[in-house]
Known about the structure:
- It contains 19 helices and eleven strands.
- The chain is of the alpha+beta class.
- It folds into two domains: 5-266 and 283-399, no CATH class; 438-569, Sandwich (Jelly Rolls), CATH 2.60.120.1310.
- The strands form three sheets. Strands 3, 4, 6, 9 and 11 form a five-stranded antiparallel sheet that branches. It has a four-stranded antiparallel sheet with strand order 5-10-7-8, with no helix packed on it. Strands 1-2 form a two-stranded antiparallel ribbon.
- β7 and β8 form a beta hairpin.
- It is globular.
Amino acid sequence: MRLGTWSRGALVLVAAVFTFAALRYRIIGTDGQAWRNAINGDGHGYHGYLVGLVQHGNPAKAPINPAFLTPAGDGHAIQYTAGAPLMQAPFFIVSHAVATLRGTGDDKCLGIEYQIGVVLAAITWSLIGLWLIARMLDRARIADRVVAFTMLLVGLGSGLIHYAVIAPALSHAYGFAAVCWCLFEAHRALHGDTDAWPRLGLTFALVVLVRPTLGLVALMLPVVALASGGRAWPMIKLKSVMMAALIGSGLLLVQPVFWKLQCGAWLVDGYAGEGFNWQSPRLWSVLFGARKGLFFYWPALLLMLPALAWALYRKPLIAAPVALGFTALAFVTSAWWNWYYGHSYGMRALLDALPVVGVLVAVWLHALASGMRNAIMLLASPLIALQLFHAWQYEAGILHPFNMDKEKYALVFLRGDEGSRNRFGDANVAELFAPHGMDTLALAELSGDSINHLSGAWPYSPALRISGERLPVERELFANIELRRKASDHFASDTVLLVFTYATEGQQRMHVTFPMNDIRRMDDRLWRHWRYAFNMPKAEPGEEVAIYLWQPGLGRVLIRDLRVTVRAVRDQ
């Protein structure tokens, strides 16, 4: 079945925007070398599966950063599951063949062939996912213009463009495509296609292999019944279900086989030492917060809320599990210890489930009178454009990768000037995962009446020092610092740095600095309270830690109410 004119046009537009963005920002960049970093961040871990298998014959032999490995069995295993690498594999194999023919291969498979290959993989899978959703909606007789709008909403109104173009080695574009494929096969099964059941089992297993928490998508599958006017699922045959389960289980067995090859164990906890804070989820922040909120940075997705309310009112038995599934996924996401998911754009952990959001919105819009429908789509268009601008701001260094709040967002709202780039500090991270609590190692503070003067003539504040006798080894440390500052000379505080060091007998192993001002280039001649939180790596035997403020500039700055606390994660 061919898509309608508007739907085809929307898909072509999304493909064109993705292609332009890839060429401009991911492949060429400002120096013609942006392609060198297409495989970045956690993407190195997924890439390691393919490097190990194809280049070295075993994923255990992949030459990757130990940060992407977890202790298991008789060695280590890659901490991520194998779904994304499986979907990247055809593109990797072609890239490897080209590199071999050109004689440009390298041990880590990070040459231009592999970098461009992963960009093509993420973009291709994203477009396939959008095409499958468009086909499903078209088959459900959703109005062509609504289908087209849905393609634009999900393709350009969310962070999909970022994770398909800028961070293509991460799992999210592949999880998105796998969920699209799963919904497509579920819709075919709903309409009595018995051959769709094995494919449904296969695609659902693929979804779980990409990200195990996406197993909650199973609760959201009834959304395809909404797309068919609330049609009930036909009589389910046990044979079909068993076939789907058998095929899906077969694919899921790939993961323990990979683990066995890597470390000799069939089961591995890929995130050993990390976990969930079930007692203190950050659900509001995950959905609406200025730090990474789903609806804050991708505001056009707010259409999901009236769409879901409408579905719950009109078809409660079908919509209830969909609402439960999405809420459960958001809750699990918000309970993860690093709930904002590190350096990333928007709420990436929910991106993979956006096909469900797209279907919900499409069904709701289709049910509205044409005038109301067109008005909503028109009013939502600027929000799609705003998301694209957010994505550009993130790439330009205007939106901080993890340390945003309402004040900072207001300062850079619709700003693209050079002065708005790299304006915010880095010392504000989530508290380490500590299921057994933390022990306070040291606490130092200046009394409320004491004022410390920093200047070119007196550049250092009093330091908190923890000697090697008191500093535990093999335990992760977490520091909290609070202070109030006021500059005597305008902008003098912008050059002040927060410093921590590890040293043994005066020889520094590590010297890390953060800007004291969490927001720079603003009037600093008034007293302002700042708070900092950062992780410190495990100390080596005999090392001393020191934390202090340093003014490498010449301006005069006053510091008061300084309070420094260092804690260590308790083993048990």
